[in-house]
């Protein structure tokens, strides 16, 4: 069993497992994905020893079990999509309504995070009033990333609009505070604040597979930065 297989079996469901748990046929699942009602798989492992994700593209994965792999949270969203379809609404209206539901909740989460966690001046003014164009750009981008499987790759709960928003905003804040993970000198207060921020971001994000880990934001903004913080703290003692 390869390291990638171990990671995928621990954190993801293959299509047969998703089909069984969600009580849906693979054919119906494909219809929902193609109809932009549920997210695409996070990872696709090919018969010729590669793994593909939207974020990292195709990478070598010799010996790994072929298949499509979905985040377990996908089960919840499959239920949401099927319930929407069961209401008898015209098929072409369902993805529009699901998008409206997702983006409204995502925007509400961003509004709260703007006031409590990190300012988003492209999307809200200093009083928290939405800036229409900027907020629309964020919510449209989030819906696109949701459908193409990006969030299933990198967010711990990728069907919760609030959890997705939290991870995205924490990453923005951490990237800014750490100079995109390149910062090397820290005051004592900066070290304390960054350590807390790193822990929060790590909890909101996925661990990433061993194949892509070296290229991931997690390596740069969590493990590498923690090591640098630890070294800086030790040197200061």
Helical segment count? 10
- In the sheet with the most strands, the strands line up as 1-5-2-3-4
How does the helix and strand content classify structurally? alpha+beta
Element pattern in H and E: HEHHEEEEHHHHHHH
- Average pLDDT works out at 94
Radius of gyration: 20 Å
Keywords, please?
5 strands, about 240 residues, alpha+beta
Would you write up a description of this structure?
The protein has ten helices and five strands; from the N terminus they run H-E-H-H-E-E-E-E-H-H-H-H-H-H-H. By secondary structure, it is α+β, with helices and mostly antiparallel strands. It is flat and about 55 Å long. The model has no long low-confidence stretch (mean pLDDT 94). Helix 5 crosses helix 8 and helix 9 runs antiparallel to helix 10. A hairpin with a 3-residue loop joins strand 3 and strand 4.
